[in-house]
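Ticket #4471: structure output looks truncated?

Reporter: J.K.
Steps to reproduce: submitted the chain below (239 residues) through the standard prediction queue, then opened the result file.
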Amino acid sequence: MLKEKVDLLKQYINESDNIVFFGGAGVSTESGIPDFRSVDGLYHMKYKYPPETILSHSFFIRHTEQFYEFYKEKMIYKDVKPNITHLKLADLEKQGKLKAVVTQNIDGLHQEAGSKNVLELHGSVLRNFCMNCNKFYDLNKIIKSKNIPYCQCGGIIKPDVVLYEESLDDATITKAIQFISKADILIIGGTSLSVYPAAGLIRYYKGRKMVLINKSVTAYDNDADLFIQAGLGEVFKEL
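Returned output as attached by the reporter:
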């Protein structure tokens, strides 16, 4: 059954040069980054405050030191490497088939694998900026700083990630909508499609070949033209 579905996906890909991939945490779990919402994920661990509270804008402003204690321990995975899914997607882009990767992840692994057109809906841990002068800092600045990272000007450095209570970047959203709405094939992978507004972007897809690859069921399974209930690595290694 799985082989038949993967063969059909291969056929879809072979026949198209206008594919968009929309991915979530499940893309990076095989690289060693945990899925927040899985049974053993971040949201099921015990902390003084819920992760949603710690990773909020207001908590960052009011309790910056506690925010960074959590952030450095649970949000940064410096030594992880791209897995087969990242690499295959980059290869499809080089072939001219994949037009864009729209990702909810903040790990930068798509770019490390070689993908060029990556739309990061929730930002990236690799980018950080001073809230006072906007000077850019890389991830090493955050890792090496004790407690709160400060800029040369004295301002607090903030990760360029979208925290709870913050809005997604308008320009990124607009580009994502453009690519998704014009795509011939939309491949959705490794996401429960439960995080909004990001998950709502798939509603802009107007094509007839929506592929959904996920280990668990989602609310959109019946909308997919091809639903493959499996891990992404299991599928992409066959492409």
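Triage note (M.O.): checked the attachment and the full token line is present. Residues 1-33+81-122+167-239 form a domain with the Rossmann fold fold (CATH 3.40.50.1220).
Status: closed, working as intended.
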